[in-house]
Amino acid sequence: MKKASFFIVLGLAVLLLFGCAGGGGLLGGVSTKPEGTWYVEVLKEYEGRYDASNYFYIDIEVNEAKDAYDAKAEDEEGNELAGITVTFDFSNDKVNSLKIQIGNDYDYNLTGEFYDGSSKTLDVMFGTYDESEHNEEGVWFAVRNDFPNLAGVSTSESEGDNLEQLETIIEGLIKETTGKEVEIDLSELNK
C-alpha cells in the first residue's frame, strides 16, 4: 500500500511540475489559453452609459522560454503596428495586466477575467481599465479575432446568431459588473 501511495504522490508531483494539469506548471510554462489574436475594445463612460472609446487587435503568444507572453498590436490584416508597445500578464484565468502604450499619446492598463466559453471561439476577456495620459477609466472586453464573422469571412445566419449571442454575453458582463447598460455592436467588424 505504501508503494502505491508513493507512486500516486509522485505522479501528481510530475503533473504539477510539468503543467499537465491546469494549463501550466513550474516547468510546463504559462497557460496557452489566451494565445491568438484578440479584438480588444475599451469603453468609456459618457452620460451614464458606456460607449466605445478605442479598439485594438492584439496578438498574444507564449514566449520561447514558456515563462511569459509576447504581445503586439496589429492591423486588421495581421501586420504589426509600429509605435505601439504591448505587454500581457495572465495567470489562473485572470488578466493581471494588458498594457497598451502608444508613444506619449495613450497608456492603457487593462485588468480583468478570462471567461472560457463552450468553444475556443466563444472565449471572452473582460474587465476594467485606466488610461493615465488622459485620466480616463472604464471597462473593456476582448473577443478572439477568429470568432465566426469577425474577420468577415462568412455571413451565414447561424454565425450571425453566434455573434448576437456574444454581444449579449458582453452586455450582460458589463451590466452585472457596473450596473450600467451598454449596447455592443460587433457587426461593424465585418465591413
Would you summarize the structure shown here?
This protein has helices at residues 2-18, 157-178; strands at 36-46, 49-62, 69-74, 84-91, 94-102, 106-115, 124-131, 136-144. It is an alpha+beta fold and 191 residues long. The protein has an 8-stranded antiparallel β-sheet.
Beta-strand content bin: 35-45%
Shape: globular
What's the CATH topology label of the largest domain? Answer: Lipocalin
Helix-strand pattern:
HEEEEEEEEH
Determine Rg (CA atoms, Å). 19 Å
Helix/sheet category: alpha+beta
Number of domains: 2
Q: What's the end-to-end separation, in Å? A: 65 Å
Question: Which CATH class of the largest domain applies here?
Answer: Mainly Beta
Q: Biggest sheet: strands side by side, in what order?
A: 3-2-1-8-7-6-5-4
Quaternary structure classification:
single chain
Mean pLDDT: 78
**Largest sheet properties:** 8 strands, antiparallel
Number of helical stretches of at least 4 residues: 2
* Helix percentage: 10-25%
CATH architecture of the largest domain: Beta Barrel
Low-confidence stretches: 12-26, 149-159
Number of strands: 8
Q: What is the CATH superfamily of the largest domain?
A: Quinohemoprotein amine dehydrogenase alpha subunit, domain 2
